[in-house]
Design goal:
Layout (H helix, E strand, L loop, with lengths): L1 E3 L2 E4 L2 E4 L1 E2 L3 E3 L23 E3 L7 E2 L12 E3 L5 E2 L14 E3 L10 E2 L5 H5 L7 E3 L3 E2 L4 H8 L7 E3 L21 E3 L21 E3 L6 E2 L12 E3 L4 E4 L14 E4 L3 E2 L5 H4 L6 E4 L6 H8 L4
Parallel strand pairs: 5-6, 6-8, 7-9, 8-10, 10-12, 11-13, 12-14, 14-15, 15-16, 16-18, 17-19, 18-20, 19-21, 20-22
Antiparallel strand pairs: 1-2, 2-3, 4-5
Length: 297
C-alpha cells in the first residue's frame, strides 16, 4: 500500500480516499485486497484516527497495530478481519475509541481468547467508547465485569452477542461515567441489578434477550434515559416501581415479551418525548393496553 496526495494504492488498485496528517478514513469502500503486517499503512505512525470499517479484507488481523502508537480512534467494525483479535491492540494506550464490532448474522464471530478481554483492555485506561458487539468473549459475569472495572472513563459499553454469562458483577458499578450500556443477547441469567438504575449519566440501557427474571427495579432516578429496552426476558410483576413524571427525554421503552401484569400508569403514557412503547401485559387489561398505546404510533 502506497500513498500519494490523497491516493491510495492497494492490491494494484488506485483509490481516492480522505485522509490528513492525523486521520485516515477508508470506511465503506468494500475493499477486498488484504492488509497484512507488510502494509505501509503501519508506517503512518503519526496517525491519531484510523477507520477501516465496512470493508471485505477477509483475512486474519494484522498483528502490528501497536506500531500506530498515537492512535486515539480505531474503527475496524465490519472490516472483514477474521479470527483472534491481536494483542497489539492492547498496547495502544492512547485509545479513546475502540470499535471491533461485527454483525454475527452475516459473519463468523471474532475471538477474544489469547488475549482475553482483561488483557485487551488492561492498558487502555483512556477508553471512553468500547464496541465489541459480536466478538466471542465467552466470560462469566465476574470475569468480564472485573476486566472492565478499571476503565473509569468509559462512557459507552456495547457488547451484545458476546457469549457473556451472568450475573452482572457489582464491580461494573464503578464505571460511573457510563451513559450507554448495550448487552443484548447474552445469557446474563439473573435479576436486573439495582446498580443499573444508579448510573447518573445513563441515556441508553439495552438488555433485551438476556434471560433476566424477577421484577423491574425502579428507574425513577434515571431521568436522563432516552432508551430503556428490557424486552424478550422473563420479567414479571408490574411497572409501577418507577415514577415516570420526571422523564422528559425518554423516547423508546421496550418491555415486550415478558410476563408483566397490571395496568399502565397514566404518567408513563404522558411522557411528551415518548415515540415508541412496546409492552405486553398478560392479564385482562391487555385489550385496554393495546388501545391506550395506539395513539403513540
Amino acid at each position: 500500500m502506497e500513498s500519494n496526495h490523497g491516493l491510495l494504492f492497494l492490491g494494484g488498485c488506485k483509490l481516492r480516499c480522505w485522509w490528513s496528517c492525523f486521520d485516515f478514513d477508508l470506511s465503506g469502500r468494500e475493499i477486498s485486497s488484504p492488509i497484512d503486517d507488510s502494509s505501509s499503512l503501519f508506517h503512518l505512525q503519526h496517525l491519531r484516527q484510523l477507520n477501516l470499517a465496512l470493508n471485505q479484507f477477509m483475512t486474519a488481523f494484522p498483528t502490528i497495530f501497536d506500531k500506530l502508537e498515537n492512535l486515539r480512534y480505531l474503527n475496524l467494525s465490519e472490516a472483514g478481519f477474521t479470527g483472534q483479535i491481536p494483542i497489539g491492540i492492547s498496547r495502544l494506550t492512547r485509545l479513546v475509541t475502540l470499535d471491533l464490532s461485527i454483525h454475527t448474522l452475516f459473519r463468523t464471530p471474532l475471538k477474544l481468547e489469547k488475549p482475553n478481554l482483561k488483557t485487551l483492555v488492561q492498558n487502555l485506561m483512556k477508553l471512553r467508547f468500547l464496541y465489541l458487539d459480536g466478538v466471542n468473549i465467552s466470560a462469566t459475569g465476574n470475569e468480564w465485569c472485573q476486566a472492565l472495572s478499571p476503565l473509569t472513563e468509559l462512557q459507552v459499553l456495547s457488547m451484545s452477542d458476546c457469549y457473556l454469562s451472568g450475573p452482572i458483577h457489582s464491580s461494573l458499578s464503578r464505571l460511573r461515567p457510563l451513559s450507554v450500556i448495550r448487552l443484548d443477547r447474552n445469557n446474563l441469567s439473573s435479576l436486573i441489578p439495582q446498580f443499573c438504575t444508579k448510573f447518573p449519566n445513563l441515556t441508553c440501557l439495552s438488555l433485551s434477550s438476556v434471560n433476566f427474571s424477577g421484577p423491574i427495579p425502579s428507574f425513577s432516578s434515571s431521568i436522563n434515559l432516552r432508551e430503556l429496552i428490557l424486552a424478550l426476558n422473563q420479567l414479571n410483576g408490574t411497572i409501577h416501581s418507577t415514577d415516570w413524571t420526571g422523564f422528559s427525554k425518554l423516547e423508546i421503552i421496550g418491555l415486550g415479551n415478558n410476563k408483566l401484569s397490571g395496568t399502565i400508569s397514566p404518567t408513563l403514557l404522558g411522557i411528551s418525548s415518548l415515540q415508541t412503547l412496546s409492552l405486553s401485559i398478560t392479564n385482562s387489561m391487555a385489550a385496554l393496553v393495546t388501545f391506550m398505546v395506539r395513539p403513540l404510533h
